[in-house]
Amino acid sequence: MEIEPTTLIAYAVIWTVFYFFLSNYIAELSRQKWTTWVQSEESDDILVEALQAVIEEIEDRMHDKLEVFQTHFQKSFFGSVGNMTKKAQSLDPLNKIRKAAKDGDWTSMMVEYAANKAGLGPFMAQNSTETAQNRTKTAPKEVKFGLK
After folding, report:
1. At what angle do helices 93-103 and 106-118 cross, to 10 degrees?
2. Whose CA is closest to 96, among 82, 108, 114?
3. Among candidates 90, 139, 93, which has minimal Cα distance to 115?
4. Where are the domains of the chain?
5. Residue 101 CB neighbours (<10 A)
6. What is the pLDDT of residue 97?
7. pLDDT tens by residue, 120-129
């Protein structure tokens, strides 16, 4: 028994068309059964149980990312707050007067007070730190005004 090439090609085409429609039909039936089962209440516990490892992995990763974000945020936030506090203290015109009063340098205190009243405090900030340090070194530590 010999098969002609045209007959063989016809069988292959028929088989291919039949297989295509059969596989699509089986896939559609499978999809319908799956969606019906997933939407049913009996699948809830099974799906949660099957996906528990995935859920735990997601929670662990989110927890780790939250910790990294929290530490980074705290460092950057408190660092910027500290820098702002230092800058605000350096801009405070009464800060230098307090320091001069604490050191007992009455001349620096009077100059700073007069400059602050005249509105020259920010302009004297650069020069006054150098001169105030030089004056405190030469000024006596304890000033007595004749009172016992």
Report:
1. 170
2. 108
3. 93
4. 1-39, 89-138
5. 15
6. 66
7. 655 555 544 4
